[in-house]
Design brief:
It contains 7 helices and 5 strands; from the N terminus they run αβαβααβαβαβα. It is of the alpha+beta class and 193 residues long. It has a domain of 121 residues: NADH Oxidase. Strands 1, 2, 3, 4 and 5 form a 5-stranded antiparallel β-sheet that branches. The longest helix is centred in the middle third of the chain and has 21 residues.
Length: 193
């Protein structure tokens, strides 16, 4: 199989970008389909598809923001108006938001841990596809990823939980680089005696 330096360069330069710095345009329907197809190509022991996706675009972002605001106000009754406004505008920070839902499918072949890892891989594939298409992204798990009321508002089943919310858009500024761990600090080689 031929080497693809372009793919290696993309993997070595992928970087999350804060949603507050994202601008239009976000992925259009054709690019979103490519990203979702890439997400569905991850390792999936037993062909269970232990993930699904909820897409927030256009006016749906503002409408769901009002739901987030109401739920946050209920869960945090001491929240001030500035914080409530932040929650209401949260999904407006980026042109597109995708909730990735990890769902456990009964299986003798694929344990729950493998299914959760597959959902995480779906998130990563979506981010890589977005980067390859010229967009930026950020995979976040904030309070709403762990809220039972948000899960209920989005119709999650008892076997489902949020793997995260991924924000997508175009960059408004150059991506900064952050320090990465030295491989010598995180890699060991096991050797037989």
């Amino acid at each position: 199989m031929p080497r693809s330096q372009e793919t290696i360069d993309l993997l070595l330069s992928r970087r999350s970008v804060k949603p507050l710095t994202m601008v239009e345009p976000g992925p259009d329907d054709a690019d979103l389909e490519i990203m979702l197809r890439a997400a569905s190509r991850v390792p999936d022991h037993g062909k269970l598809a232990p993930w699904r996706f909820i897409v927030f675009k256009g006016d749906a972002r503002a409408k769901f923001g009002r739901i987030l605001r109401d739920i946050f106000a209920e869960e945090e009754p001491r929240a001030d108006e500035d914080r409530l406004k932040l929650e209401e505008r949260r999904f407006l920070q980026a042109p597109l938001v995708v909730a990735v839902i990890s769902r456990i499918v009964p299986s003798k072949k694929a344990p729950e841990w493998e299914q959760r890892l597959s959902a995480g891989a779906a998130c990563q594939n979506m981010l890589i596809a977005a980067t390859a298409l010229g967009y930026v992204g950020a995979w976040l798990t904030e309070w709403y990823s762990y809220s039972d009321k948000v899960a209920k508002a989005l119709g999650l089943g008892d076997n489902e939980r949020f793997a995260g919310f991924i924000y997508f858009g175009s960059p408004s500024q150059p991506k900064d680089e952050r320090e990465r761990p030295a491989l010598s600090d995180i890699v060991t080689e096991w050797k037989a005696d």
